[in-house]
Specification:
homodimer, 243 residues, Arc Repressor Mutant, subunit A, Chorismate lyase, 2 domains, 6-stranded antiparallel beta sheet, 23% helix, DNA-binding
Chain lengths: 243, 243
DNA sequence: GAGTGGTCTAGACCACGTT
DNA sequence: ACGTGGTCTAGACCACTCA
């Protein structure tokens, strides 16, 4: 390990400096993808740190996907899996576009009964009482999305008397009804506007849209809301980052 | 801390069991979003573990976004940011659908010169030599995507003599040319098939597609490839998870 | 059997925020 | 001054892999 010397700075966590130096060796190609890196004792000696500190640095790099470790074998530089087969690709995403305003246009809010398919996603019995509400969401003052929400009525008595057009629905669910929103899963498809969506969004039928199907969960993996949205594709994009 | 007893299992990492038990308290709502959880000494005593082990459990939960810690103040349950304004929403995503096969149909691979716009994304001078290649990607033996790739020719001499129709392009770039692929950024839009895409994908014009624009980076933030794809929307979905 | 990483402990010192 | 979390050390035992 007789590379360049390692001089620790004061006032900066040791494990962080070690992490940075290790990352440099990866980024620079000194340690190529797939290669094995020196074992812990060697690195401890090189950096002059205890095993705990070194392992904190290595552990961070493992969590971030840069390294891979195998008990009994060693530590290896993880080749980035940028593709090699699309499905299963994963990473972080961000939505790019304007923010939704709190205010929305309420199309309707009505009592209804769960059909077989809605019952399945809401995890209630078919025919169970539900709310079905439809809103046009605004961003920068213009229609940006059309959203259909289905909620188990049992959790939200008197929902139709809430200020649905002027507050975020999720805020009403959480603050007025005390429903803890813990997790949400979305599926995104491409689609095109039909006449109904086009009219509400002020666009031509056939315009490309995102179709977003979101299920929001509360405690005990119960469903707090099922929401079907279409988003204007000319306003929103998804940004995904791989490493 | 006289809640229910905590009995550690053998043959399962202690820090993992502690993590699971803590997570249970969050999921069940015993510790509400925003609330402060007991300090380390109390939790150490409760679980009968050393501080190192407890901190490993807490650290994992912090990394996963469940907890937030502030030196001198305490540890708090992080309120989930599910929406409250779409843009800026973030989370983890997965692509759902079949994997791309290594084999693809090569439409063309030709020498070209960078236009102003391509030069900008590839970070080369306008007019610089580039490769432009187009392929139909297969999944389960059927056309699933049409991809146009732009690469700085300087990095890939003789690319047109490589087995472009039978290997992953990224593998050729990495293994045959030693280009380290470190990071990639994608932007996803909805679109519809034009005649050209429809013909190559065996679908009708007007069918909804994902349009994916991907830039892959090598060391020094240089661009290794710029790729424009359209993916069949009836085969692929994006799955996003928020917490 | 020697070397690898995985786990766990006990104890120490520090910077920070609240009181 | 006190309690919080952040850092770091030294040493121990384990399961696993490979020669």
């Amino acid at each position: 390990m007789p590379t360049t010397a390692f001089a620790a700075q004061r006032d900066l966590a040791l494990h962080h400096q070690v992490r940075e130096d290790l990352l440099l060796k990866l980024r620079s190609g000194e340690w190529a993808p797939g290669a094995e890196i020196p074992p812990e004792p060697a690195l401890c000696a090189h950096y002059g740190v205890s095993r705990g500190t070194l392992r904190r640095a290595l552990g961070d790099l493992v969590n971030e996907g840069y390294l891979e470790r195998f008990p009994g074998r060693g530590t290896f530089v993880r080749p980035p899996k940028l593709e090699t087969g699309l499905a299963g690709s994963f990473g972080r995403f961000t939505v790019v576009g304007p923010s939704f305003a709190q205010a929305s246009r309420l199309v309707f809010c009505r009592r209804s009964r769960a059909s077989a398919s809605i019952a399945a996603v809401l995890k209630v019995k078919p025919g169970a009482p539900i709310w079905h509400l439809e809103r046009v969401r605004l961003a920068d003052g213009r229609p940006a999305a059309l959203q259909s929400s289905y909620l188990p009525r049992r959790l939200y008595p008197g929902l139709d008397r809430q200020p649905l057009a002027s507050r975020f629905l999720l805020d009403i669910m959480a603050e007025e009804y005390g429903v803890a929103l813990l997790r949400a899963v979305e599926f995104v498809d491409p689609t095109v506007a039909d006449g109904y969506a086009a009219r509400h969004l002020g666009i031509k039928p056939g315009t490309p849209l995102f179709r977003v199907e979101r299920t929001t969960y509360t405690s005990g993996e119960r469903v707090a809301e099922y929401r079907l949205s279409v988003l204007r594709g000319d306003i929103f994009r998804y940004r995904n980052e791989f490493r």
